[in-house]
Amino acid sequence: MVEGKTTLQERTNCGEVTTQLIGKKVTLTGWVHRRRDHGGVIFIDLRDRSGLVQIVFNPDEAKDIFADAERLRSEYVIKVKGEVRQRPEGATNPNLPTGEVEVYITELTLLNSAQTPPFAIADYREVDESLRLKYRYLDLRRPEMQANIIFRHQVVKAVRDYLDNQGFLEIETPFLTRSTPEGARDYLVPSRIHQGSFYALPQSPQLFKQLLMVAGYEKYFQVVKCFRDEDLRADRQPEFTQIDIELSFVEPSDIQDLTEGMIAYVYQRVLGHQLVTPFPRLTWTEAMNRFGSDRPDLRFGLELQDFTDLVKSCGFKVFAAVAQSGGQVKGLNVKGGSSISRREIDSLTEFVGQFGAKGLAWMFIEQDEVRSPIAKFFSSEELEQIKAQAQAEPGDLLLFVAAKPRVVAAALGNLRVEIAKRTGLINENSEDKYVWITDFPMFEYSEEENRLVAMHHPFTSPCDEDLALLQTDPAAVKAKAYDLVLNGIELGGGSIRIHSRKVQEQVFQALKISSDEAMDKFGFLLDALGYGTPPHGGIAFGLDRLLMLWSGADSIRQVMAFPKTQSAMDLMTEAPAPVSSQQLAELGIVVRTK
After folding, report:
1. Angle between helices 206-214 and 515-528 (to 10 degrees)
2. pLDDT at residue 235 in the model
3. What is the pLDDT of residue 585?
4. Domains by residue range for the chain, with CATH
5. How many whole angstroms from its chain centre is CA 100?
6. Which stretches does DSSP call E strand in 49-185?
7. pTM of the complete model
8. Residues of the chain falling short of pLDDT 50
9. SS3 annotation, 383-416
10. Is 588 left (phi over 0), alpha (psi -120 to 50) or beta?
11. What was the pLDDT predicted at 236?
């Protein structure tokens, strides 16, 4: 066995060795996936990116290299030459595309040996994720991970092809820009040349894609990295990828139609099946009223029921006081929920407490009575009205929350999903459900900042009929904004943008952004709006989140080549890391330790 090299032209990919090549000589390269010694004959599953093929070292046909073959171990990198043959009857592997053939080897070249990996590549068993991330280059060798990364490429390729066919231009925007208030914290980059000043890594290309519309490009897209310094979870990373789209001379329906066409195209081309469009549309108000969430999971029913008017004069003071003071009393009808135990109800009570609810009232609907510790506070007529409102039948369980509208929505919106998971209403066979959420409020009140903040971002256009309210009642303004939701998870969102400087300034005023601050932070945009800006709008999708959902992965880390941990650490490169005092001095930075 000798050291050697190979060329692309002479290689055959392992996964392409099929019955069509029987009797032909092939050159293969790859990693030793598995090695088996059967009575003096050595069988090796050879792996490359395309798949696996079984190669055979028979001492009768490979006498000169057999001793070298015996020394091969897992993850050794080799080059072999041999003849493709039909596998013997009964020895085929129907689970492999190459399972009907094997390659009898006559030449063997060792390209590199390998240490024993910290976890098995071939017969992988679940190991701590931190170990996988530390040795990510090995984790990425696993066929499951390679399938995810290949899938990512296929989806991005399909998106690019679709948008190109629709007349879009892919245009890059800067990574080094200025810090602007967009919601999350910016990642800052110090300037050596302009000491004391900082660039910011973009949270999104929002302002630049709008400027491209001002510049007359009409149809822009970009598969782009974005950066946000925020707390992480399974579907968040400090750096993530967006499919970013912007168009001129459009209405919300144009962008929604384009999006549905793009997703249907990807489904057909990559996932191999038809997707039914158009997707249903719900206004934000309807979604909140029915599901308690602007990201409703429509794979099951269990909709919220409003009992506020029915209980304003009831004898149960908790309900009556909330209903009379502007709060809400809403509930869920868990069909067949009589099998749920008191212990489980206590668990659900603790669950809704996470969202601010002070309690969870309940009623078991039985054949001749309502069993509940609060039933005695209601007249029989009131109980019948509650049952009618909930469409309750014997065997059902009614659950109630009474609180401020925001608390009721958060508690019951999350509770319906939790109950669906516990009772099997959601399972792996549940059909995917897409839905557009439209007509969002323009602003929401931030108790932390004691002011209105933009629900999406401050460049979202108000609905035309609400323009006058910007100065008199901004909280009542609705926006030309829309989100696309899949199975209770937001895939992406967008809006029609403000193309009038006057309207943009009014929005800044409603947000209590002073004229001086607006010019300091967004002066270039305000100036641009004065030079013939067309009406425009767009949408952005979290690519990593899309891939997570479409592939069935547990987190976006499974569909990213080199992700970071939930504490924003790269365990492989050990970033972030301290830098030398010389580098800091060049930047004019002094690090202060706590």
Report:
1. 40
2. 66
3. 92
4. 2-112 (2.40.50.140), 128-168+201-272+542-594 (3.30.930.10), 300-423 (3.30.1360.30)
5. 39
6. 51-57, 77-86, 101-112, 169-170
7. 0.90
8. 1-4
9. HHHHHHHHCCCCCCEEEEEEECHHHHHHHHHHHH
10. left
11. 82
